[in-house]
């Protein structure tokens, strides 16, 4: 039982680490976007576009911002099944 709990704790820790890393990446992209806009760069959204695309989170063409904000569900990391 202790080994099972240890594996579950390790898996949870790995998931938290992945979420923290993804948050850090998104935050850095958002900050870079604001800095690029302030400098008048031609395409300041490139930073966010790249970060979202890397995680398959670009909105579909024609998506309405209000709908995307209302959905605000945080995508969870995929769970592997059958791991002992």
UniProtKB/TrEMBL annotation:
<protein>
    <submittedName>
        <fullName>Uncharacterized protein</fullName>
    </submittedName>
</protein>
């Amino acid at each position: 039982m202790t080994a099972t709990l240890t594996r579950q704790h390790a898996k949870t820790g790995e998931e938290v680490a992945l979420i923290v890393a993804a948050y850090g990446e998104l935050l850095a992209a958002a900050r870079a976007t604001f800095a690029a806009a302030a400098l008048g760069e031609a395409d300041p959204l490139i930073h966010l576009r790249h970060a979202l695309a890397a995680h398959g989170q670009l909105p579909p063409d024609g998506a309405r911002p209000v709908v995307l904000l209302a959905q605000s569900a945080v995508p969870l990391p995929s769970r592997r099944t059958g791991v002992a």
